[in-house]
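Protein Record: Sequence and Backbone Structure Tokens
======================================================

Structure line: whole-number tokens from a learned vocabulary of local backbone shapes, matched to residues.

Purpose: to set a sequence beside its fold so the mapping can be learned.

___
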Amino acid sequence: EQAFSDALGLLPSNEWLTRAVLYHKVSVSFQARLLLAEAEAASDRALAVLGQPTTDWPLPWRHAWLEHQLSRMDTLYYQGDLDQLAGLVAVITPTLDTVGTPAHRADFVKSLVELAMRREHFTLSADTVAKCETLLAAAQETDDLAAIAWAQFGLGFSLLWSGQTAKAAAPLLVGLKQAEEGGLAHTEVLC
């Protein structure tokens, strides 16, 4: 995050979108190391730069806002703040529905799955398994191997924790193979 912070110091003050993207990168960097208070502070700075979305915003601006909010969902998941996470779903949905890309939709569904898993205390319902199937379909639209492998893990995990152990093996093995092929160590360990 130091490089991103240094870059922020070099930017002209009127480079709002670039500034917001850099704050987002700082936030994600903190989040990856589970420095959640720092991630949230950087997130707040990015949102202050971006403001509230309007329909007349240019598409890159709305995408930056959406990507930032999706990342914020991850922070709230790690913090265990399920009420705020659920509230953010309502805030994100209108922008996601109008300008979201397949990658945005996959990331959003992943957060819905994580929220459901936490609420159900990992004794998962058929509805949560269905959300995982939706996540896999959304991830496949992105052609992003990391997203697809993680979604395979998510589906296998949900089947396992919904009591469908025999069905869980197939997506876990597919996810494992994809993770190995893609050098995705974290997902490989999960599978």
